[in-house]
Design brief:
The chain is mainly beta. It is built from five helices and 29 strands. The chain is elongated and about 100 Å long.
Length: 530
Protein backbone atom coordinates (compact mmCIF):
# COMPACT_ATOMS: atom_id res chain seq x y z
CA UNK A 1 0.00 0.00 0.00
CA UNK A 2 2.82 2.44 0.88
CA UNK A 3 4.48 1.87 -2.49
CA UNK A 4 1.21 2.71 -4.27
CA UNK A 5 0.76 5.90 -2.27
CA UNK A 6 4.30 7.02 -3.09
CA UNK A 7 3.69 6.37 -6.81
CA UNK A 8 0.44 8.33 -6.82
CA UNK A 9 2.06 11.20 -4.92
CA UNK A 10 4.92 11.31 -7.43
CA UNK A 11 2.47 11.62 -10.30
CA UNK A 12 0.42 14.24 -8.50
CA UNK A 13 3.52 16.31 -7.81
CA UNK A 14 4.82 16.04 -11.34
CA UNK A 15 1.42 16.84 -12.92
CA UNK A 16 0.32 15.84 -16.39
CA UNK A 17 2.82 16.36 -19.21
CA UNK A 18 1.47 17.24 -22.67
CA UNK A 19 3.41 15.54 -25.47
CA UNK A 20 3.69 16.79 -29.03
CA UNK A 21 5.02 13.69 -30.85
CA UNK A 22 6.71 14.02 -34.22
CA UNK A 23 6.04 11.72 -37.18
CA UNK A 24 9.26 9.76 -37.63
CA UNK A 25 8.24 7.02 -40.07
CA UNK A 26 5.30 6.12 -42.28
CA UNK A 27 4.47 3.13 -44.48
CA UNK A 28 1.95 4.17 -47.13
CA UNK A 29 -0.44 1.75 -48.83
CA UNK A 30 -1.68 2.80 -52.25
CA UNK A 31 -5.44 3.07 -51.52
CA UNK A 32 -4.87 5.70 -48.82
CA UNK A 33 -4.07 3.76 -45.66
CA UNK A 34 -0.88 4.70 -43.85
CA UNK A 35 0.93 3.14 -40.91
CA UNK A 36 2.27 6.06 -38.86
CA UNK A 37 4.91 5.99 -36.15
CA UNK A 38 5.25 9.09 -33.96
CA UNK A 39 7.86 9.61 -31.26
CA UNK A 40 8.39 11.97 -28.32
CA UNK A 41 11.01 12.26 -25.58
CA UNK A 42 10.03 11.58 -21.98
CA UNK A 43 12.01 12.24 -18.78
CA UNK A 44 13.06 9.69 -16.20
CA UNK A 45 10.62 8.71 -13.48
CA UNK A 46 6.92 7.92 -13.26
CA UNK A 47 4.78 10.50 -15.07
CA UNK A 48 1.34 10.84 -16.63
CA UNK A 49 1.22 12.08 -20.21
CA UNK A 50 -1.40 13.37 -22.63
CA UNK A 51 -1.07 13.82 -26.40
CA UNK A 52 -1.72 17.29 -27.75
CA UNK A 53 -3.76 15.67 -30.55
CA UNK A 54 -4.97 12.10 -30.97
CA UNK A 55 -4.18 10.18 -34.19
CA UNK A 56 -7.24 9.37 -36.31
CA UNK A 57 -6.61 5.63 -36.12
CA UNK A 58 -8.60 2.63 -37.27
CA UNK A 59 -9.83 0.81 -34.20
CA UNK A 60 -7.39 -1.60 -32.63
CA UNK A 61 -4.38 -0.12 -34.44
CA UNK A 62 -3.45 2.63 -31.96
CA UNK A 63 -0.64 1.48 -29.66
CA UNK A 64 1.86 3.15 -27.34
CA UNK A 65 5.20 1.65 -26.36
CA UNK A 66 8.81 2.63 -25.72
CA UNK A 67 11.72 1.54 -27.93
CA UNK A 68 13.97 2.13 -24.89
CA UNK A 69 12.11 -0.33 -22.67
CA UNK A 70 10.25 2.20 -20.49
CA UNK A 71 7.06 0.76 -19.00
CA UNK A 72 3.80 2.13 -20.47
CA UNK A 73 0.56 1.61 -18.54
CA UNK A 74 -3.02 2.85 -18.07
CA UNK A 75 -3.66 3.78 -21.69
CA UNK A 76 -7.07 5.44 -21.95
CA UNK A 77 -8.96 7.71 -24.32
CA UNK A 78 -11.61 10.22 -23.23
CA UNK A 79 -13.82 12.69 -25.07
CA UNK A 80 -15.02 16.04 -23.67
CA UNK A 81 -17.88 17.31 -25.80
CA UNK A 82 -17.73 20.87 -24.38
CA UNK A 83 -14.13 21.74 -23.68
CA UNK A 84 -13.74 25.56 -23.38
CA UNK A 85 -11.72 27.07 -26.19
CA UNK A 86 -11.51 30.77 -25.36
CA UNK A 87 -13.75 33.64 -26.39
CA UNK A 88 -15.00 34.98 -29.69
CA UNK A 89 -16.93 38.11 -30.69
CA UNK A 90 -20.72 37.85 -30.88
CA UNK A 91 -21.23 38.90 -34.48
CA UNK A 92 -24.59 37.31 -35.32
CA UNK A 93 -28.08 37.36 -33.85
CA UNK A 94 -27.83 33.65 -32.83
CA UNK A 95 -24.54 34.49 -31.04
CA UNK A 96 -26.25 37.30 -29.08
CA UNK A 97 -29.23 35.14 -28.18
CA UNK A 98 -26.98 32.27 -27.04
CA UNK A 99 -25.11 34.55 -24.59
CA UNK A 100 -28.16 36.48 -23.33
CA UNK A 101 -30.21 33.81 -21.55
CA UNK A 102 -31.87 35.45 -18.48
CA UNK A 103 -31.43 38.98 -19.79
CA UNK A 104 -34.04 41.44 -21.05
CA UNK A 105 -33.80 42.03 -24.79
CA UNK A 106 -35.57 44.16 -27.37
CA UNK A 107 -35.95 42.44 -30.70
CA UNK A 108 -37.64 43.43 -33.96
CA UNK A 109 -39.16 40.63 -36.00
CA UNK A 110 -40.61 40.54 -39.48
CA UNK A 111 -43.46 38.15 -40.23
CA UNK A 112 -42.19 35.56 -42.71
CA UNK A 113 -45.51 35.48 -44.61
CA UNK A 114 -46.18 39.25 -44.46
CA UNK A 115 -42.76 40.68 -45.14
CA UNK A 116 -43.94 44.25 -44.56
CA UNK A 117 -45.28 43.47 -41.08
CA UNK A 118 -42.71 44.50 -38.42
CA UNK A 119 -43.18 43.99 -34.67
CA UNK A 120 -41.03 45.05 -31.68
CA UNK A 121 -40.94 42.65 -28.72
CA UNK A 122 -39.40 43.26 -25.29
CA UNK A 123 -38.99 40.60 -22.66
CA UNK A 124 -36.74 38.31 -20.65
CA UNK A 125 -35.01 35.68 -22.81
CA UNK A 126 -35.82 32.35 -21.17
CA UNK A 127 -34.48 29.94 -23.72
CA UNK A 128 -32.81 29.65 -27.11
CA UNK A 129 -32.42 26.19 -28.62
CA UNK A 130 -29.18 27.21 -30.36
CA UNK A 131 -30.51 26.98 -33.86
CA UNK A 132 -34.03 28.24 -34.49
CA UNK A 133 -36.48 29.15 -31.72
CA UNK A 134 -36.17 31.61 -28.82
CA UNK A 135 -38.70 32.11 -25.97
CA UNK A 136 -39.36 35.42 -24.17
CA UNK A 137 -41.29 36.19 -20.98
CA UNK A 138 -43.21 39.39 -21.69
CA UNK A 139 -43.83 42.14 -19.02
CA UNK A 140 -47.40 40.82 -18.60
CA UNK A 141 -46.05 37.36 -17.72
CA UNK A 142 -47.04 35.77 -21.02
CA UNK A 143 -44.60 33.66 -23.01
CA UNK A 144 -43.77 34.50 -26.61
CA UNK A 145 -41.71 32.42 -29.03
CA UNK A 146 -40.16 33.63 -32.25
CA UNK A 147 -37.92 32.19 -34.92
CA UNK A 148 -34.39 33.48 -35.27
CA UNK A 149 -35.09 33.75 -39.00
CA UNK A 150 -37.77 36.37 -38.24
CA UNK A 151 -35.44 38.53 -36.12
CA UNK A 152 -33.60 41.30 -37.98
CA UNK A 153 -32.75 43.79 -35.20
CA UNK A 154 -31.65 43.34 -31.56
CA UNK A 155 -30.54 46.06 -29.17
CA UNK A 156 -27.02 45.27 -27.94
CA UNK A 157 -26.35 47.94 -25.27
CA UNK A 158 -26.66 45.67 -22.25
CA UNK A 159 -25.85 42.34 -23.95
CA UNK A 160 -22.52 40.45 -23.82
CA UNK A 161 -20.23 41.26 -26.71
CA UNK A 162 -18.38 37.93 -26.53
CA UNK A 163 -19.39 34.29 -26.41
CA UNK A 164 -17.48 31.36 -24.98
CA UNK A 165 -16.08 29.00 -27.59
CA UNK A 166 -16.51 25.29 -27.04
CA UNK A 167 -15.08 22.43 -29.00
CA UNK A 168 -15.00 18.68 -28.53
CA UNK A 169 -11.62 17.47 -27.27
CA UNK A 170 -10.35 13.92 -27.39
CA UNK A 171 -7.50 13.02 -25.06
CA UNK A 172 -5.18 10.04 -25.05
CA UNK A 173 -3.55 9.57 -21.65
CA UNK A 174 -1.03 7.04 -20.37
CA UNK A 175 1.67 6.63 -17.73
CA UNK A 176 5.34 5.88 -18.27
CA UNK A 177 7.85 4.61 -15.76
CA UNK A 178 11.36 5.23 -17.14
CA UNK A 179 14.69 4.64 -15.41
CA UNK A 180 16.26 7.38 -17.53
CA UNK A 181 15.43 9.78 -20.40
CA UNK A 182 13.55 7.70 -22.95
CA UNK A 183 11.36 7.81 -26.03
CA UNK A 184 7.69 6.95 -26.38
CA UNK A 185 6.40 5.65 -29.71
CA UNK A 186 2.77 5.95 -30.85
CA UNK A 187 1.85 3.65 -33.75
CA UNK A 188 -1.43 3.71 -35.68
CA UNK A 189 -3.02 2.75 -38.99
CA UNK A 190 -4.98 5.69 -40.35
CA UNK A 191 -5.98 7.72 -43.38
CA UNK A 192 -3.77 10.61 -44.39
CA UNK A 193 -1.54 9.66 -47.35
CA UNK A 194 -1.65 7.68 -50.59
CA UNK A 195 0.64 6.96 -53.52
CA UNK A 196 0.53 5.96 -57.17
CA UNK A 197 3.07 4.41 -59.51
CA UNK A 198 3.93 5.86 -62.92
CA UNK A 199 6.14 4.55 -65.71
CA UNK A 200 7.83 5.79 -68.87
CA UNK A 201 8.78 3.24 -71.53
CA UNK A 202 11.10 4.35 -74.33
CA UNK A 203 10.86 1.94 -77.26
CA UNK A 204 13.98 0.98 -79.18
CA UNK A 205 13.49 -2.02 -81.46
CA UNK A 206 13.38 -5.26 -79.50
CA UNK A 207 14.33 -3.52 -76.25
CA UNK A 208 13.10 -0.58 -74.25
CA UNK A 209 14.06 1.60 -71.32
CA UNK A 210 11.57 1.39 -68.45
CA UNK A 211 11.64 4.08 -65.77
CA UNK A 212 9.41 3.83 -62.71
CA UNK A 213 8.42 6.66 -60.39
CA UNK A 214 6.14 7.02 -57.39
CA UNK A 215 4.06 10.04 -56.45
CA UNK A 216 3.29 10.45 -52.79
CA UNK A 217 0.33 12.61 -51.79
CA UNK A 218 -0.34 13.75 -48.24
CA UNK A 219 -3.78 14.40 -46.83
CA UNK A 220 -3.92 15.41 -43.19
CA UNK A 221 -0.35 14.33 -42.40
CA UNK A 222 2.59 16.71 -42.30
CA UNK A 223 6.15 15.35 -42.51
CA UNK A 224 9.47 16.79 -41.39
CA UNK A 225 12.35 14.51 -42.31
CA UNK A 226 10.22 11.37 -41.79
CA UNK A 227 11.40 8.08 -43.26
CA UNK A 228 8.82 7.01 -45.87
CA UNK A 229 8.20 3.54 -47.23
CA UNK A 230 5.70 2.73 -49.98
CA UNK A 231 3.84 -0.57 -49.85
CA UNK A 232 1.94 -2.47 -52.54
CA UNK A 233 -1.02 -4.61 -51.54
CA UNK A 234 -3.12 -3.89 -48.46
CA UNK A 235 -3.25 -5.29 -44.93
CA UNK A 236 -5.75 -8.07 -44.36
CA UNK A 237 -8.22 -5.96 -42.36
CA UNK A 238 -11.59 -7.02 -41.00
CA UNK A 239 -14.32 -6.06 -43.48
CA UNK A 240 -16.23 -4.56 -40.56
CA UNK A 241 -13.27 -2.42 -39.51
CA UNK A 242 -14.20 0.00 -36.77
CA UNK A 243 -13.18 3.63 -36.67
CA UNK A 244 -11.55 5.53 -33.84
CA UNK A 245 -11.06 9.16 -34.86
CA UNK A 246 -11.07 8.65 -38.61
CA UNK A 247 -13.26 11.05 -40.57
CA UNK A 248 -16.83 9.97 -41.14
CA UNK A 249 -20.31 11.17 -42.01
CA UNK A 250 -22.45 12.71 -39.24
CA UNK A 251 -20.56 10.52 -36.82
CA UNK A 252 -20.93 12.81 -33.82
CA UNK A 253 -24.68 12.30 -33.85
CA UNK A 254 -24.12 8.61 -34.60
CA UNK A 255 -21.85 8.35 -31.59
CA UNK A 256 -24.35 10.09 -29.30
CA UNK A 257 -27.12 7.82 -30.60
CA UNK A 258 -24.91 4.69 -30.45
CA UNK A 259 -25.19 4.23 -34.22
CA UNK A 260 -22.50 3.13 -36.69
CA UNK A 261 -20.04 5.66 -38.03
CA UNK A 262 -19.18 5.95 -41.73
CA UNK A 263 -15.93 6.23 -43.61
CA UNK A 264 -15.43 9.51 -45.49
CA UNK A 265 -13.70 10.42 -48.73
CA UNK A 266 -11.87 13.38 -47.25
CA UNK A 267 -9.89 14.31 -44.19
CA UNK A 268 -10.54 17.49 -42.28
CA UNK A 269 -10.19 18.65 -38.70
CA UNK A 270 -13.47 17.62 -37.05
CA UNK A 271 -12.97 19.94 -34.08
CA UNK A 272 -12.74 23.09 -36.20
CA UNK A 273 -15.73 22.22 -38.38
CA UNK A 274 -18.07 21.33 -35.52
CA UNK A 275 -17.08 24.17 -33.21
CA UNK A 276 -19.98 26.48 -34.06
CA UNK A 277 -22.48 23.70 -33.40
CA UNK A 278 -21.15 23.15 -29.88
CA UNK A 279 -21.00 26.73 -28.59
CA UNK A 280 -24.26 26.87 -26.64
CA UNK A 281 -23.77 28.05 -23.00
CA UNK A 282 -26.83 26.16 -21.75
CA UNK A 283 -25.10 22.85 -22.38
CA UNK A 284 -27.46 21.72 -25.10
CA UNK A 285 -26.21 20.10 -28.26
CA UNK A 286 -27.37 22.11 -31.27
CA UNK A 287 -29.93 19.66 -32.60
CA UNK A 288 -33.01 20.34 -34.67
CA UNK A 289 -35.35 19.97 -31.67
CA UNK A 290 -32.95 20.99 -28.88
CA UNK A 291 -31.03 18.71 -26.53
CA UNK A 292 -29.56 15.76 -28.40
CA UNK A 293 -32.10 15.78 -31.18
CA UNK A 294 -30.55 15.52 -34.63
CA UNK A 295 -31.08 17.94 -37.46
CA UNK A 296 -29.96 18.00 -41.09
CA UNK A 297 -26.60 19.60 -41.70
CA UNK A 298 -25.64 19.99 -38.03
CA UNK A 299 -22.43 18.03 -38.33
CA UNK A 300 -20.31 18.31 -41.46
CA UNK A 301 -20.21 15.35 -43.81
CA UNK A 302 -16.61 14.57 -42.83
CA UNK A 303 -16.85 14.46 -39.04
CA UNK A 304 -16.23 11.60 -36.66
CA UNK A 305 -15.79 11.90 -32.92
CA UNK A 306 -16.05 8.20 -32.10
CA UNK A 307 -13.96 7.21 -29.09
CA UNK A 308 -13.42 3.89 -27.36
CA UNK A 309 -13.78 2.42 -23.92
CA UNK A 310 -10.28 1.55 -22.69
CA UNK A 311 -11.56 -1.55 -20.91
CA UNK A 312 -12.03 -3.51 -24.14
CA UNK A 313 -10.65 -1.18 -26.83
CA UNK A 314 -13.94 -1.43 -28.70
CA UNK A 315 -15.69 1.12 -30.87
CA UNK A 316 -19.01 1.77 -32.45
CA UNK A 317 -18.93 -0.74 -35.33
CA UNK A 318 -19.41 0.56 -38.82
CA UNK A 319 -21.02 -1.54 -41.51
CA UNK A 320 -18.35 -2.85 -43.88
CA UNK A 321 -20.68 -2.26 -46.83
CA UNK A 322 -20.87 1.51 -46.39
CA UNK A 323 -17.29 2.36 -47.34
CA UNK A 324 -17.16 4.91 -50.17
CA UNK A 325 -16.98 3.35 -53.61
CA UNK A 326 -13.62 4.93 -54.46
CA UNK A 327 -11.92 3.31 -51.47
CA UNK A 328 -13.66 -0.03 -51.98
CA UNK A 329 -12.45 -0.13 -55.61
CA UNK A 330 -8.92 0.88 -54.64
CA UNK A 331 -8.69 -1.76 -51.94
CA UNK A 332 -10.10 -4.44 -54.25
CA UNK A 333 -7.50 -3.58 -56.90
CA UNK A 334 -4.70 -3.54 -54.34
CA UNK A 335 -5.62 -7.02 -53.13
CA UNK A 336 -4.35 -8.27 -56.48
CA UNK A 337 -0.88 -7.04 -55.55
CA UNK A 338 1.67 -8.75 -53.33
CA UNK A 339 2.83 -6.93 -50.22
CA UNK A 340 6.15 -5.36 -51.10
CA UNK A 341 8.02 -2.39 -49.62
CA UNK A 342 9.79 0.33 -51.61
CA UNK A 343 12.08 2.77 -49.80
CA UNK A 344 11.12 6.38 -50.58
CA UNK A 345 13.81 7.85 -48.28
CA UNK A 346 13.16 10.87 -46.06
CA UNK A 347 10.47 13.42 -46.84
CA UNK A 348 9.65 16.90 -45.57
CA UNK A 349 6.26 18.01 -46.87
CA UNK A 350 3.26 19.92 -45.57
CA UNK A 351 -0.25 18.48 -45.39
CA UNK A 352 -1.86 18.36 -48.83
CA UNK A 353 1.53 18.32 -50.59
CA UNK A 354 2.75 16.05 -53.41
CA UNK A 355 6.20 14.72 -54.19
CA UNK A 356 7.42 12.43 -57.01
CA UNK A 357 10.67 10.47 -57.11
CA UNK A 358 12.15 8.05 -59.66
CA UNK A 359 12.53 4.58 -58.15
CA UNK A 360 14.30 2.65 -60.92
CA UNK A 361 15.47 2.72 -64.54
CA UNK A 362 16.56 -0.31 -66.55
CA UNK A 363 16.42 -2.01 -69.96
CA UNK A 364 13.64 -4.52 -70.66
CA UNK A 365 13.12 -6.91 -73.60
CA UNK A 366 10.02 -6.16 -75.70
CA UNK A 367 7.75 -8.65 -77.44
CA UNK A 368 4.78 -7.72 -79.66
CA UNK A 369 1.91 -10.14 -80.24
CA UNK A 370 -1.84 -10.18 -80.90
CA UNK A 371 -4.12 -11.67 -78.27
CA UNK A 372 -7.75 -12.81 -78.49
CA UNK A 373 -9.94 -14.02 -75.63
CA UNK A 374 -12.19 -16.27 -77.72
CA UNK A 375 -15.71 -14.86 -77.87
CA UNK A 376 -18.11 -13.47 -80.47
CA UNK A 377 -18.01 -9.92 -79.10
CA UNK A 378 -14.28 -9.56 -78.49
CA UNK A 379 -11.50 -8.37 -80.79
CA UNK A 380 -7.82 -9.07 -81.19
CA UNK A 381 -5.69 -6.86 -78.95
CA UNK A 382 -2.25 -5.61 -79.81
CA UNK A 383 -0.10 -6.43 -76.79
CA UNK A 384 3.39 -5.26 -75.87
CA UNK A 385 4.78 -7.85 -73.46
CA UNK A 386 7.49 -6.90 -70.94
CA UNK A 387 9.31 -9.38 -68.75
CA UNK A 388 9.96 -8.39 -65.14
CA UNK A 389 13.48 -9.54 -64.36
CA UNK A 390 13.69 -7.44 -61.17
CA UNK A 391 13.69 -8.75 -57.63
CA UNK A 392 10.66 -6.58 -56.81
CA UNK A 393 7.20 -6.53 -58.33
CA UNK A 394 6.01 -3.77 -60.63
CA UNK A 395 3.10 -1.95 -58.94
CA UNK A 396 0.02 -1.20 -61.00
CA UNK A 397 0.03 2.26 -62.55
CA UNK A 398 0.09 4.08 -65.89
CA UNK A 399 2.78 3.65 -68.56
CA UNK A 400 3.68 6.52 -70.91
CA UNK A 401 5.10 5.07 -74.15
CA UNK A 402 7.50 7.00 -76.38
CA UNK A 403 9.35 6.18 -79.58
CA UNK A 404 12.00 8.50 -81.03
CA UNK A 405 10.70 11.30 -78.81
CA UNK A 406 7.12 10.88 -80.04
CA UNK A 407 4.37 9.87 -77.55
CA UNK A 408 2.50 6.75 -78.64
CA UNK A 409 0.11 5.90 -75.81
CA UNK A 410 -0.61 5.88 -72.11
CA UNK A 411 -1.85 2.48 -70.95
CA UNK A 412 -2.31 0.67 -67.63
CA UNK A 413 0.53 -1.36 -66.15
CA UNK A 414 -0.87 -4.40 -64.30
CA UNK A 415 0.81 -5.51 -61.11
CA UNK A 416 3.61 -7.83 -62.26
CA UNK A 417 5.39 -10.13 -59.84
CA UNK A 418 9.13 -10.82 -60.29
CA UNK A 419 9.78 -13.28 -63.09
CA UNK A 420 6.37 -12.67 -64.69
CA UNK A 421 5.24 -10.84 -67.84
CA UNK A 422 3.33 -7.57 -68.04
CA UNK A 423 0.94 -7.27 -70.98
CA UNK A 424 0.45 -3.66 -72.10
CA UNK A 425 -2.66 -3.47 -74.29
CA UNK A 426 -2.05 -0.86 -77.03
CA UNK A 427 -5.38 -1.21 -78.84
CA UNK A 428 -7.48 -3.52 -81.02
CA UNK A 429 -6.59 -5.03 -84.39
CA UNK A 430 -9.78 -5.24 -86.44
CA UNK A 431 -7.92 -6.43 -89.57
CA UNK A 432 -7.26 -9.77 -87.86
CA UNK A 433 -10.51 -11.64 -88.56
CA UNK A 434 -12.01 -14.30 -86.32
CA UNK A 435 -15.11 -16.43 -85.96
CA UNK A 436 -16.39 -18.73 -83.19
CA UNK A 437 -19.39 -21.05 -83.32
CA UNK A 438 -20.72 -23.50 -80.69
CA UNK A 439 -22.74 -26.64 -81.50
CA UNK A 440 -24.46 -29.15 -79.23
CA UNK A 441 -23.67 -32.70 -80.36
CA UNK A 442 -25.60 -34.78 -77.84
CA UNK A 443 -27.59 -34.56 -74.57
CA UNK A 444 -27.86 -37.58 -72.22
CA UNK A 445 -28.97 -38.05 -68.57
CA UNK A 446 -26.03 -37.38 -66.28
CA UNK A 447 -27.28 -39.92 -63.72
CA UNK A 448 -30.34 -42.20 -63.87
CA UNK A 449 -31.25 -41.24 -60.30
CA UNK A 450 -31.15 -37.49 -61.11
CA UNK A 451 -33.16 -37.14 -64.34
CA UNK A 452 -33.17 -33.34 -64.11
CA UNK A 453 -29.43 -33.25 -64.74
CA UNK A 454 -28.02 -33.89 -68.22
CA UNK A 455 -24.55 -34.25 -69.72
CA UNK A 456 -24.14 -32.17 -72.87
CA UNK A 457 -21.40 -32.85 -75.42
CA UNK A 458 -20.52 -29.69 -77.34
CA UNK A 459 -17.91 -28.50 -79.79
CA UNK A 460 -16.60 -25.05 -80.55
CA UNK A 461 -15.28 -24.19 -84.00
CA UNK A 462 -12.68 -21.40 -84.05
CA UNK A 463 -11.10 -19.81 -87.09
CA UNK A 464 -8.77 -16.82 -87.50
CA UNK A 465 -7.48 -15.00 -90.61
CA UNK A 466 -4.53 -12.65 -91.07
CA UNK A 467 -5.49 -10.02 -93.66
CA UNK A 468 -2.28 -8.05 -93.12
CA UNK A 469 0.66 -7.86 -95.48
CA UNK A 470 3.09 -9.00 -92.75
CA UNK A 471 3.18 -12.13 -90.59
CA UNK A 472 1.72 -11.90 -87.06
CA UNK A 473 2.17 -13.83 -83.84
CA UNK A 474 -1.09 -14.74 -82.11
CA UNK A 475 -2.10 -15.94 -78.66
CA UNK A 476 -5.65 -17.17 -78.18
CA UNK A 477 -7.30 -18.31 -74.95
CA UNK A 478 -10.71 -19.84 -74.24
CA UNK A 479 -12.37 -20.62 -70.90
CA UNK A 480 -14.13 -24.00 -70.83
CA UNK A 481 -16.66 -25.15 -68.23
CA UNK A 482 -16.76 -28.95 -68.33
CA UNK A 483 -14.47 -31.86 -69.10
CA UNK A 484 -12.28 -31.24 -72.17
CA UNK A 485 -12.31 -34.20 -74.57
CA UNK A 486 -10.37 -32.68 -77.46
CA UNK A 487 -8.24 -29.59 -76.83
CA UNK A 488 -7.17 -29.20 -80.49
CA UNK A 489 -3.49 -29.14 -79.45
CA UNK A 490 -4.01 -26.30 -76.96
CA UNK A 491 -2.14 -26.09 -73.67
CA UNK A 492 -4.70 -26.83 -70.92
CA UNK A 493 -4.59 -25.19 -67.49
CA UNK A 494 -7.03 -26.35 -64.80
CA UNK A 495 -8.40 -23.53 -62.65
CA UNK A 496 -10.21 -23.60 -59.30
CA UNK A 497 -14.00 -23.47 -59.43
CA UNK A 498 -16.93 -23.66 -57.03
CA UNK A 499 -18.82 -25.88 -59.49
CA UNK A 500 -18.70 -29.39 -57.98
CA UNK A 501 -20.04 -31.03 -61.16
CA UNK A 502 -17.82 -29.42 -63.78
CA UNK A 503 -14.14 -28.77 -64.11
CA UNK A 504 -12.92 -25.40 -65.36
CA UNK A 505 -10.01 -24.97 -67.75
CA UNK A 506 -8.26 -22.33 -69.80
CA UNK A 507 -7.10 -23.42 -73.25
CA UNK A 508 -4.30 -21.45 -74.90
CA UNK A 509 -3.05 -21.56 -78.49
CA UNK A 510 0.05 -19.81 -79.84
CA UNK A 511 0.47 -19.61 -83.60
CA UNK A 512 2.14 -17.63 -86.38
CA UNK A 513 0.05 -16.64 -89.40
CA UNK A 514 1.54 -15.59 -92.71
CA UNK A 515 -0.10 -12.77 -94.73
CA UNK A 516 -3.54 -13.91 -95.93
CA UNK A 517 -3.33 -17.22 -94.03
CA UNK A 518 -6.37 -18.75 -92.27
CA UNK A 519 -6.45 -21.45 -89.58
CA UNK A 520 -9.40 -23.35 -88.10
CA UNK A 521 -9.85 -25.98 -85.34
CA UNK A 522 -12.53 -27.64 -83.18
CA UNK A 523 -12.65 -28.11 -79.38
CA UNK A 524 -14.88 -30.74 -77.74
CA UNK A 525 -16.01 -30.83 -74.09
CA UNK A 526 -18.74 -32.30 -71.83
CA UNK A 527 -20.77 -30.16 -69.43
CA UNK A 528 -23.22 -31.30 -66.73
CA UNK A 529 -26.22 -28.99 -66.41
CA UNK A 530 -29.85 -28.90 -65.34
Amino acid sequence: MSILLIAVATIAQAGEVVLDPRVTEIAVFKPGLVFVQREASVPAGLHQFRLNSVPQALDGTLWVDSPDGAKVSELRTTIDMRAPAGKRASTTIPDLLATSIGRTIIVQIRNAALKTSVETIKGKLLNFDGQNTATLQLPNGHLRSFSVYEAFDIGTEDLPKETTRYRPRVDLRFRIDATGPSHVRISSLELGAAWVANYRLKLNGENGRLESAAQLGLGSLSLSGAHVRLVTGVPNLDSKAKLDLATGSSSLLNYLNNSPGRLSQESRDPFEVAEKFLSQPNGQYAGGGGGLAGGAGLVGQSIDFISYDPSDNSLVVRNGDDAPAFLARAIQASRLEDLHIYDFNRVSLQAGGRITRVLSSHDVPLHTLYRWNVGPNTEFERVLRLHNGDKAGWPSGMVFLQSDGIPLAQVPMPFTAPGQDANLVLGTAEDLLHHVEVHEISRLPANPRTPNWVEVLSDTTIDVTNTRTEPVEMELSESITGEVEDSADASVKKVATSDVLNASSILTWRLDLAPGQKKSWVVKYRTVMR
